[in-house]
Amino acid sequence: MTRVTRAVPPAQPHPALPGTTVDALKIAVVGGFGVGKTTMVRSASEIRPLHTEEGVSRAGRTLDDTCRVRAKGSSTVALDFGRITIDERSVLYLFGAPGQERFWFLWDRLFDGTLGAVVLVDTRSLPDAWYALDRLEHHGMPFIIAVNDFGGPLRSEEQIREALALGPEVPLVEFDARDHSSSKFVLIALVEYLHALSLGEADPKDDRGQDHKGDRGQDRKGD
Fold first, then answer.
1. What predicted TM-score, i.e. pTM, was given to this entire model?
2. What is the spatial distance between Cα 28 and Cα 37, in angstroms, rounded to a whole number?
3. DSSP secondary structure string, 106-128?
4. In this predicted model, what pLDDT tens digit does every residue of 157-169 receive, in sequence order?
5. CA 127 to chain centre
6. Are 143 and 31 contacting, i.e. CB atoms less than 8 angstroms apart?
């Protein structure tokens, strides 16, 4: 598993070079409730990000499983939006999806026009990523896994892949969603993966020619 910790200066918009075309790429940031999607969009964005956050009410705590994130005071109810320039030709538009199960109906529309996704996971509750993985596979959308550092428990790459039923072809990185440099390199890893797929250098299928979905069980909680 790749740990993304290299220092990168704050992103600045890069004007397109004369005669070049800027590729505007729509990227989804998905995962369970409280895994750091809003934090990642905020830390990576070169513009002031748009958030649709509301306070977590008493009623909301009865609807959403907040036992793992009891201190969480607000939650995304529609989407998070940010922008980051990777280089003079690539601009990413980031769309963070709400993680609560009651807002899952928004995801399919959010995926329209999306080229790839980052799936955030928390090693304290890996099954929270099941729904995101299932929906992405349903749409045939390439994705990478980004393990947000919440301080444990420590899981090996093999343990994470087994828990999420991931094939070896899916990139897996470890990062800190609060850190701009770390979040940016997650996005660079996704762009590089998408580029490799476009050139045929990476294969989203396993060596048997089948989608590597595995059995993620039937109980999908989106806490």
1. 0.75
2. 10
3. GHHHHTTT--EEEEEE-TT-GGG
4. 999 999 999 999 9
5. 15
6. no
